[in-house]
Amino acid sequence: MIIKWPGGKKWLPIKYNALLPNKYNTYLEPFMGSGAMYFGLEPRKALLSDINPRLINLFSQLRDNPEYLYDKTNELISTHSEKQYYEIRDKFNTLEPSAANFLYLNRTCFNGVYRENKKGEFNVPVGKRNSSFFPFNFEEFKVFSDALQNAELSCEDCFSALEKASEGDFIYIDPPYLKNEDNYESFRKYGKDIFNRKKLEELASTLNELSSKCKILISNFDLEDVKILFDSNWNLKSVEQMSYISGSGKGRKAMQEVLIYNY
Fold first, then answer.
1. I need a labelling partner for 164 at 20 to 30 A (CA). Which of 9, 91, 211, 250 fits?
2. Distances (CA, A) of 34 to 86, 122, 214, 218, 247
3. What domains are defined for the chain?
4. Confidence of residue 55 (pLDDT cuts 50, 70, 90)
5. What Å distances lie between residue 88 and 26, 39, 85, 91, 168, CA to CA?
């Protein structure tokens, strides 16, 4: 993936491809994140959205100006240092929230975490790993740009995005997960606001209404508090995935997730 993103779903279209529908009109993903599901699925037409304007700007620039974005990011990567990281982070939060600055910070920050403080400022510290920060040549980078040519990108919340759903569409929903352990809340705070239980209940209600006309797939932690929001018309599949959010060995562990779908 072009960006690192906690909870990314690169594994889903690889391990559970047989579970995904192969006939639908438009693909909708209101919580785009890293775009791993979209890039793995490669639909012919898509509406991709996220509430994070900086993230959508990054993917827009990747789609429309890949060579410029690649060159600018490479320039920053080639001179990376802890001092430079914090200088760019300050610029990103004030004068230059550019796509290149976003991508540089994402590739060099702690575990690819995106987190904002109450002021809406990106506040993740610099990462300490020694591996390659930007392991792409331009041809590999451009593959992602080419894939986005089929997508319409927008910055909006999930409820606004779902208003665009039409008969025969396929919707993939991967919201920030409900808390199921200590310290997890901070990793649900991708923006300055936390996606809480009330929002998940509102989202489930909207999805239940859309289920008669759209194919829908939802992922979340395998918790009763999640599954209870969907009636017997939905199918449930429990899966186990490794979590790589924490930098400690304790945090890198198997997590129980659930895939909820109506087809």
1. 9
2. 23, 17, 23, 16, 19
3. 11-47+154-261 (3.40.50.150)
4. very high
5. 37, 28, 5, 5, 44
17, 10, 28: which is closest to 163 by C-alpha? 28
**Contact 31/219 with Cβ under 8 angstroms?**
no
pLDDT of residue 186: 40
Confidence (pTM): 0.91
With a cut of 90, say whether residue 78 has pLDDT above it: yes
Average pLDDT over the chain reads 90
Q: What is the per-residue pLDDT for 184?
A: 42
3-class state of residue 220 by DSSP: strand
What sign has the CA pseudo-torsion 186, 201, 154, 210? Answer: positive
114 neighbors 106 (Cβ within 8 angstroms): yes
Query: Highest-confidence range of 197-201, 220-224, 258-262, by mean pLDDT?
Result: 258-262
Find out whether 27 and 37 touch, Cβ atoms under 8 Å: no
78: enclosing H helix or E strand: helix 66-78
* Cα end-to-end span (Å), the chain: 28
SS3 112: helix
